[in-house]
Amino acid sequence: MWLEFESYLQDRGSSPKTIRGYLNDLKQFATWFEITNGQVLEPGLMTPIDGREYRQYLIAIKKSRPATINRHLAALHSLGEWAVKVGEVGSNPFSGIKKIEQQALSPKWLDRREQAALQRLVDRQVNAAQTDIARMQAIRDRCILIVLLNTGLRIGEFTQLEETDIQMTDRKGELWVRKGKGDKSRNIPLNDTARRVLKEWMVLKPKSPLLFTGQRGPLKIRAVELIITELGRLANVEVTPHRLRHTFGKSLVDSGVSLEKVAALLGHSSLNTTRVYITPSQADLEKAVRMLD
Question: Is the pTM of this model over 0.85?
Fold first, then answer.
């Protein structure tokens, strides 16, 4: 069952991270189902009451947070959709299960001080490099940081970039995301800062269709995450590739860019997703209160 469901999610365009999360959540549901009903989980055995009771189990017994519960319920809903598609059930047994209401929280992004600390670090690493290999790696790592910070790419989109996806002249440039979330493509204009580091890296990079590679071949998602995490450790800044994406979105909104344009740049299919960048963070609230001093 799980292999068929995984294929369904892949065909639907779900990201590898989403697929892993759904499968992990649903295997927990399967364990609960078997203990509760005395039967191994099969699509045809699923009923609405299973969904409601599992929701209550997550609330009262597991004491899971609202976001975790809603993620489990989203996985259940997708499982029900797949069961309908393959003819195991006539209707989605989990379609009526309500999510947990929760206060909207702004994502975490980097403030200007944190951004400056990271950018100073990568500049210093390039200047301090003593060998050609060390310099090339430092230039690559600086390019990775600056491009993520100035394009808001998802990490999966970033690692799939090819040289031909970058088009630049002296005055402008753009980056083409060939296959974003939901298999949607989009073009992202490149500012002067991004063009500068990309030009420097593309002169030095090893010969490969992919834009970013290491000594052992193409950089995978985990490798990029480790590079960014290490830069953050050295700069004393808590950072991930996803936080760089949030920083890009927040910076655009703070600069007065409309939500429609921010959504297009980030590849959001709904403005509701983009509205999170106008939700005040704790730092925003602290700044507001300080204005009274």
Answer: no
